[in-house]
Predict the 3D structure of the following.
Amino acid sequence: MVRPDAARAAEAIRKLLAEPGSAGREVTAHLLLGRPRRGAWWTSWANLPGFVQMRSAAGTVYRHQLLPNWEYTSAEMRTEMLEDLDRLALTGEQPKEATR
């Protein structure tokens, strides 16, 4: 089921980029990581299953559960994440190295 899920995920992210209001209900959680100034905010949206925005002192990154161990900046999310999801949908192949 990974390939169809990847195709749906790429389509949902493209729709989000075209129509920012299409993300659906937002849920945000704060993770306190033990030391002062060591926390993170995770945000997910109802219409974007598996897609998460993580904000911390280090900056903001985006992740998708179908692309484990990969983090994308805002600019990379618009290009590399979509390319990686499209490749996963077409071939079932996970990214092996950074494309840029």
Remarks:
- Strands lie at 26-32, 39-45, 51-56, 59-64.
- The two ends are 28 Å apart (CA to CA).
